[in-house]
Amino acid sequence: MKKRIQKLTALLLLGAMTASLLTGCGGGNSGSSDSDSGSSSEESSGSSGGAAEVTLWHYFEHEAPDLEAIVEKYNEEQDKIHITATYVSREELMNQYTIGAVSGELPDIGMVDSPDMASYVSLGVFEDITEDVESWEDLDQFYPGPLLSCQDADGKYYGLPNNSNCLTLACNMDVLKKAGFEEPPTTWDEFREVCEKTTNAADGVYGFAMCAIGTEEGTFQLLPWICSAGGNIDSLDSPESIKGIQFLTDLVEDGLMSKEVINWQQSEAYNSFCAGKAAMLESGTWQLADIDEKINGTFEYQYALLPKDEEYSSTIGGENFGVCTGTEYRDECVDFLKYLMSAQNNADFTAAAAKLPVRKDAVSLNELFTTDERYAVFNEGMNYARARGPHAQWPTLSEAFYTAVQQSLLGEKSVEDAMKAAAATIDPIVAEDPLPEASIGGGVADDVN
Amino acid sequence: MKLSMAAKKSKEAYVFILPGFIYLLIVCGYPLLYNIDLSFKNLNVKNFASGEAVFVGLENYKTLLADPTFRLVFKNTLVFTFACLLIQFTIGFLFAMFFSKKFTLAGPIRGLVLVGYMMPMSVTALLGKNVFQLDSGVINDLLMKLHLVSAPVDWLVNGGTALAAVIAVNCWVGIPFNMLLLTSGLTGISDDVYESASIDGATSFQRFLYITLPLMKSAMLSVLMLGFIYTFKAFDLMFIMTAGGPFNSTDVLGTYAYSRAFTQYEFSQGSTIAMILFICLFCVGLFYLKLLGKEDD
Question: Which A residues, 10 through 69, put their C-beta within 8 Å of a C-beta on chain B?
């Protein structure tokens, strides 16, 4: 018996040690052995008829059918390549790009979250397609903010933007009206007042819900608060940036916003709002896809710009598509990108998927963007929205920022100390590689309306 | 003549070992060497594509050891490991003893306890996240209803309690695991031994102290070693339940290595952390094998 246990243990021990090595990041090959894992759930069908097989990886979920519809259409319209769109979860997709940069196991076309693009360009995941993009007559239709996220510091293009989104304020008008407010707040002072009057500790209702989680999602939602006061991520120790975070910290300290926001993803803050547990929410464009379904008529809601201190602010989000390094069908893939981002297709896709178009001429092609009041608010928000980066070390800047904010919100450090510590991390990085000019107050889609 | 027969036999044995050996070399050996190599370089997002990463010797190790965040993460790993081991081993042992008694439904109930162990860790972690929520979590709801606390406890928001919550969830998985292995050890002890001890007048406590414990020594050692290794390399639980937060208070070596390498693209730093993790586990493994050797003598 004893011997058997020992043998079993030795075996388990060996397994555990092997597994521990593989969970570590050392094995560049550890994950790539099965690079197709998690695929095949969302494959688009269609006749390939001798056309070359081309793979496209994306992490769209509710948007997947809308993307696949365009892919399908493209497959039917030409016979050079047959594209198969494959869903890979976002987290896994990012790992696969990193691993693929070493092993060369990349798809032909890849989707990427816009702030991450610069890092992957730096890792060599995407092909330089500058010539093809610059010679394209449609290029000047693209909004500069989203387009910038496809470029490196030298202005070379590595992809095309596919969709945009930004952040605005969603208000539960039933609660606001009951508290005596007929309209959503527009300034920080009004916003604070609404928070005070709508917070109801007894029922567990907070004035405001947002996401301040320790990931890029947190940075996305936190940036408008420092930018509105006149600060930015490359000047976190400035009085303006400190003022912005102090404002949020006071909300938490005074019980107007739940401490839990530091653990909430955007979807969790959204659920809290939809369940009537928060009077206001920092809301993203994509949430329009199912907000009516989620709220299910239990209350009236209204969208407005995020309240302002000095100026209105928001953050640009969205996805880009690039041609991956080492593909045999580079030109064909570029052709597909242009097809996918043509005015009509861009309008159709973004309207169906509750996103904003990346080109000016697409806005008028779908009446949703001009007639739906909620989209009108988001379109206006784009005028004040800033791009994140692009910067190859954006994840490091982002981490320093959200960590400092979390410390402030929970009172672990004073706002000033936390922001100074973050600035000490960020300053040397931006001193060496500055953030591009356009992302500081720029990157604005100035004529969405 | 006899010798050469033996030599021939051992040659044959090598042939049989070969496939396994090659497999290990590819699956374990190559990543390990690659990792060691990376940990002595300065590979990051900026020099990745250009291939300009250079040999920096022990620089990564020095930087890490001086980094307060890494120290915190290492401390978290140790606290997490030892707290989990203590709790899950003690309770697991008690459960094992309890369920070795032959009473009605002992089997089915033991099966139910095992449910925690059989669930995928990611599911357990999500459950943990919900159970420990500030405003809508079951635990706070329960504590409030029993009037044990006057205001909801901010379990996952506060550094100290977040680590405690993660430990609690891990024990929920660890207890059945310990129970399972210890039960198989207990069933190996013949009832005759207990019977004769009882006849000689040994109390139940004496029977536990002088029979169960010594005879279970090898099983206990195995369980503790395995528990140590499984707990020390924890990853999925924190990754999903707290993402290492709030501000690194639940980060352990596994999650920290991942975030350095795959979120911050500091590949060499990530490798160095993985190396430190490996070295720690390797030492524990050696220690265990040595103890096993002693046992056999």
Answer: 10, 12-13, 16-30
Q: Which residue of B has its CA nearest to A257?
A: B135
B265 three-class SS: coil
- Cα A154 to Cα A241: distance, rounded to the nearest angstrom: 29
Per the structure block, which two tokens stand in for A278? 């928060």
**B274 vs A24: CB contact, 8 Å cut-off?**
yes
Residues in chain A: 449
- Looking at chain B from residue 12 to 41, which residues have their Cβ under 8 Å from any Cβ of chain A? 27-28, 30-32, 34-36, 38-39
CB atoms inside a 10 Å sphere around CB A2: 16
On chain A, the residues whose CB falls within 8 A of the CB of B135 are: 204, 258, 260, 277
Distance from CA of A123 to the nearest CA of B (A): 5
Choose among B38, B134, B244: nearest Cβ to A258. Answer: B134
What total number of domains does chain B contain? 1
- Burial (CB count within 10 angstroms: exposed 0-12, middle 13-18, buried 19+), residue B125: buried
In sequence order, what are the beta bridge partners of A317?
A165
Structural domains of chain A, ranges and CATH numbers in brackets: 48-165+317-386 (3.40.190.10), 167-314+392-432 (3.40.190.10)
- Single out the residue of A272, A304, A434 nearest to residue A373, CA to CA: A304
User: What would the 3-class secondary structure string for A333-402 be?
Assistant: HHHHHHHHCCHHHHHHHHHHCCCECCEHHHHCCCCHHHHCHHHHHHHHHHCCEECCCCCCCHHHHHHHHH
Domain span at residue B80 reads 75-296
Distance separating alpha carbons of residues A74 and A53, to the nearest angstrom = 13
Instruction: List pLDDT tens digits, range A301-342.
Output: 999 999 999 999 999 999 999 999 999 999 999 999 999 999
Q: Is B227:B88 a contact under the CB 8 Å cutoff?
A: yes
Helix axes A114-123, A90-103, angle to 10 degrees: 20
pTM recorded for the entire structure: 0.81
Q: Is the ipTM of this complex over 0.85?
A: no
CB interface of B with A, residues 42-71, below 8 Å: 45-46, 48-49
Q: Which pLDDT band, with edges at 50, 70 and 90, does B295 fall under? A: low
Q: Which two tokens stand for residue B150?
A: 């006057």
